[in-house]
Amino acid sequence: MNALLGSLVVLVNLVTLCNAHCYIMPNPNTPGDLFNECKDLTGVIHPLNSKWKTEYCEECYCDQDGISCCNIVATPVSYDTSKCQKTFNKETCSFTVVEWKNPGKSCFVGGWVL
Q1: In the prediction, which pLDDT does 14 show?
Q2: DSSP class of residue 110?
Q3: By C-alpha distance, which of 102, 103, 71 is closest to 87?
Q4: Terminus of the chain with fewer CB atoms < 10 Å: N or C?
């Protein structure tokens, strides 16, 4: 019972902190046209129903309506900013939080926001 209650508390906090940044780029609407590909902002063509990650840490998906993209970076919140610093790794699209004086030591993070 305690495990179930603990899981619910974690889930509620995760949903509360989740605020993903997403956007949609619709395909041009021409009556009768059926799209089998999408063109992203950089001009790259993606096949219908494909998924990819961008260099800006977004996950995108191409469907009949166009491209939808969402940020996949979880940003740390509720940590001791006077003692700790967050560092972004672009290759892994992730933050780490370490002590200012001892960068080899991780800091406690109270939550993450998408």
Answers
A1: 39
A2: S
A3: 103
A4: N
State yes or no: pLDDT of 34 exceeds 80.
no
- DSSP-derived letter for residue 36 is S
Please tell me the distance from the alpha carbon of residue 71 to that of residue 94, in angstroms, as a whole number. 11
**Which CATH architecture describes the domain 16-71?**
Ribbon (2.10)
Which single residue is written with the structure tokens 């940020």?
71
The pair of three-digit structure tokens given for residue 65, joined into one six-digit string: 């309506």
Q: Is the dihedral of CA 78, 81, 84, 88 positive or negative?
A: positive
pLDDT per residue over 55-108, tens digit each?
A: 999 999 999 889 999 999 999 999 999 999 999 999 999 999 999 999 999 999
Residue 1 is classified by DSSP as: -
The label of the residue with tokens 């191409």 reads 62
Q: Hey, is 65 helix, strand or coil? A: coil
